[in-house]
Amino acid sequence: MSKVNFKEQGIRWKEFSDYGDYQPDYPIATLINVEASNTIIQQSTIVKDLYAVEALTQFGWLRTPGINIDDGERDRIIQKIHQYRADDQQSDFRKPRATKIRSFGSVGKVHVTENVNEIEVDEITESSSVQWGESADVMLQHLENSATTDADRDRTVLFVGPMAFSEPQRPRLLAALATYIDENRFTRDDDRAIVVGSAARKYAMNMGETDFESYAKWLLPQQTTYLSECVELEFVKGVCWRLTFVPVQRNHEFPQLTQTLFQIFGQYTNSRVLLQKNFDVIALNAIVSVFVLDTLNGTSELATAVWSQVQSANVIWFAELVFDRLKESAESISHHDITLGAALGKLIDDRCALRANA
Amino acid sequence: MPNASKLSDVPTTIQRFDVLVLAPVSDDFPLHLMLCNENDDRDDVTHVTFLNIVHMGPPLAEQRRERFFAFGSAELEERERPKIGAFVKERIAERAELRVLAKEAGQRWDSSAQYRIDPPVTRPSRDCTYWRYSCVGFVLAAYKSARIELLSQSRPLKDLQQIKAIYKNCDLGSSEFRERMGIGEGNQWPIALVGYVLNSLNRLPQEIRGEGASPFEPVDGDEYFPSRRGKPSSNPPGGVGKKSK
């Protein structure tokens, strides 16, 4: 089976042209590329690329080679392409439409009209110097280099999420991520908010105890702006994971972090707002964090107040979820800190006793 | 009554977060598992119906798919669904970046970084700040959040040859890739297979949840649906596995 070189096909649209000389080496993708090439591109109706790309994306074409690809998939994708075509022919296709093609700083507009089967795309001249699979050191250089474009910095932040960094590299990573978070945490751009969330989790999981209090400051709103809910979730999740999955040294106190998380929990744990948006999972992660921090401090006042409010919210499934998540956290902590895990387990059991007595 | 069966052209009712299985490559050996992500009950589902689903592809994604081979239902209760919903929301939120990566980085990015064959559920670490799952692991974790343990930790061991036959298109010849997938060391692994989950759901509700429930402990042959326990052809492909303890 021949493979398709997108450049040779003269495909202008970024989502294809960006693949450049990429030659898929697994059969389904190759078949789809051939289908896209023969059926769509060669008709010179480039607008129909949209159907192909949409269908390919819908069916996870960008997934890793081989996993979850069966012989029926090609047919399903091709069927989907045809379905998109058919749907569009019956739909409101007369008004010019614009679809954003984002490229972290490079935005192309796709204009589609009834009579003009063409796409106008802003030429994307930006070339990325960041490649998946580069070493941790090279990634750090991208992050630290002031000449790195915003697009490449975003891309690098996402790439470092599943990467390992050595102890000597860790301060550089944290400094670079802190700069990025400082500059972007209040963004209202959906894509960039996702990158900030990724940065927050990476930072949280790698930060030392001396960073906890400054991390808490990122969770605070300012006079005229506040964290979007998706960013707030990732910040809270990050610190919850840090407290649960990475050992915490006991010779520190974290009053600001504790208080901030307690406030966040309090804002969302009532039946009026709990079921909206992501507030239940933000509250859930804040609750677990407060319980762990209370245990670290050797106190139980905040945990008592938290559990009382969870009960007062009278959302039974949520209270059960909180209880289960707390138990799981105690078990996870026990893997690296038996004493802390046991103390948290006892605190949880004590709160449950309070509930039963109440 | 047991509630897992193959889909046909006879309409069936599927509910939110029921389990769906894609059509198998070979007869009755299901390969990919996902959760129904329809908001409302669907009583018109046949093997060719399009449904909203959420699954670990990879990447973890909400999509619309069709041509399902079978479904399984734990007959989820009203207060179990929001728990699974919270789980899915939490995971999708952190995986939203995968959408950006996929869109922006194209093939430069390898989504297998999010996937693990074994164990089926891997917690986040300093090095990898995601939960990682196999497609089965994602469903197991979702149901666990609703206090439903679908599978026992004790599962038949599969060797590399058998795993290669299941993950046919993966580069499992690469030791680096095997390492990332969690099967770098050792020569047999208790991987969680799709058929196990279907056969777990093919039990009485009281066996699946509640006081008398216990996780399903699969044996060789349960990789298939319906199970081929004790049948000569029940050792796919390449020999008999031993149980992990």
List SSEs of chain A in N-to-C order. Answer: HHHHHEEHHHHHHHHHHH
Question: Helix/strand/pairing class of chain B, anyone?
Answer: alpha+beta
Binned strand content of chain B: 15-25%
The number of helical segments of chain A is 16
> Which parts of chain A are unreliable, with pLDDT below 50 for 5 consecutive residues or more?
1-50, 60-71, 91-126
Helix content of chain A: 55-70%
Q: Describe the largest sheet of chain B.
A: 6 strands, antiparallel
Q: What is the number of helical segments of chain B per DSSP (H or I, 4+ residues)?
A: 6
**Main sheet record of chain A:** 2 strands, antiparallel
Uncertain residue segments of chain B: 237-245
Question: Quick gist of this model?
Answer:
The complex is a heterodimer of chains A (358) and B (245). Chain A is 59% helix and 3% strand.
Write the layout of secondary structure elements.
The complex is a heterodimer of chains A (358) and B (245).
Chain A: H1 6-9, H2 14-17, H3 27-40, H4 49-58, H5 71-90, E1 97-102, E2 107-112, H6 136-144, H7 150-160, H8 170-184, H9 190-206, H10 212-218, H11 229-245, H12 255-268, H13 279-296, H14 301-313, H15 316-334, H16 338-357
Antiparallel strand pairs in A: 1-2
Chain B: E1 4-6, E2 12-14, E3 19-22, E4 33-36, E5 42-45, E6 51-56, E7 60-65, E8 68-72, H1 81-105, E9 121-122, E10 132-133, H2 135-144, E11 158-159, H3 160-166, H4 175-181, E12 188-189, H5 194-201, H6 205-208
Antiparallel strand pairs in B: 1-8, 2-5, 3-4, 3-8, 4-6, 6-7, 9-10, 11-12
Describe this structure in words.
The complex is a heterodimer of chains A (358) and B (245). Chain A has 16 helices and 2 strands. In chain A, 59% of the residues lie in helices and 3% in strands. By secondary structure, chain B is an alpha+beta fold. In chain B, α1 (81-105) packs antiparallel against α2 (135-144). The longest helix of chain B is centred in the middle third of the chain and has 25 residues, at 81-105. Chain B is globular. At the A-B interface, α5, α7, α9, α11 and α13 of A face β7 and α1 of B.
